[in-house]
Amino acid sequence: MKKLAIILAAVTAAFASAQQPLQAQSRAQETSEQVTTVIARQPRGYPMYYEVHDGDTTFFDTIDPIWVFPRGRGFKKSGDWRKEYRLVYNFNKIYPYALVGRKMMAQVDSTIAADATKKSERNQYIKQVEKELLSLFSKDIKNMTTSQGVLLMRLVDRECGMSAFDIIKEYENGFAANFWQVIAKVFSQDLKLRYDPKDRDAKIEELVKVWDSGQWDQFYYSVFWESPKKTVIKTERLQSEVQKESKKGKK
What percent of the chain is modeled with pLDDT above 70? Predict the structure, then answer.
């Protein structure tokens, strides 16, 4: 019995001693594979500029500038922040229409001054312009909210120097202007209200200045943490022309 125990102990010891080199070899192989994997891993990121001074390496990088405003800047109530976010969002969407409107109004005025020598020609041309504008922008205007429509009127006044009431009166007639003024009153709006950059429309004026400075994308990103969606307008010029009345020859 004692001999059997000795034999089993010897066999176990021999087996253990035989396994140790195998386990060591296996661990060495795994370590080698891990090292190989680490070495073969593709580097990420991008090269950085650096300078070496007295054996110390200093790395350099650049980031795009953004506008950063402290929370609550210029506002006393939390509700004002929601209004400001909405104003920035609406301005980003609406202001391009006001800029195009200014260019188109200048084109219409120039065309009337140069070609519409008769009142009948002028009226016919204005009707053609109305149809073209409806064709170009009716879908976009229908998708605007009330606040966006009001903002568009304020911006058109700023860019064109005329209130919505004066524009209708100038290119249509006084009756049409008064009719739409009554409709606007129903919705608590006033087509005669002029743009006031120092008081009522001071916030809008600030946004215009940011836009004109070329920093709008950075400013918008600082508010919403995403890039602004661009308003795409198909054309900035009208195709309508003054139709001259043909002169009948005398017999």
Answer: 69
- The model scores a pTM over 0.70: no
Give me 26's structure tokens.
Answer: 């296996």
Type of residue numbered 209:
K
Helix (H/G/I), strand (E/B), else coil: 143: coil
Residue type, 66: I
Euclidean distance between CA atoms 222 and 69, whole angstroms: 8
Write down the pLDDT at residue 89: 93
Residues forming beta bridges with residue 50, ordered by sequence position? 59
> What is the three-class DSSP state of 56?
strand
- Residue 59 three-state SS: strand
Q: Has residue 227 got a pLDDT over 70?
A: yes
Report DSSP state, residue 116. Answer: -
Residue 184: how many other CB atoms lie within 10 Å: 18
In this predicted model, which residue has the larger pLDDT, 50 or 70?
Answer: 50
Give Cα separations from 56 to 46, 48, 104, 224 (angstroms): 21, 15, 62, 40
Distance between CA 56 and CA 113 in Å, rounded? 73
Report residue 129 CA to chain centroid gap: 29
Stretch (H or E) spanning 53:
strand 49-53
Instruction: Map tokens 């073209």 to a residue.
Output: 132
For residue 20, pLDDT beyond 60: no
Distance between CA atoms of residues 179 and 150, nearest Å? 17
Rounded CA-CA distance 215/67 in Å is 8
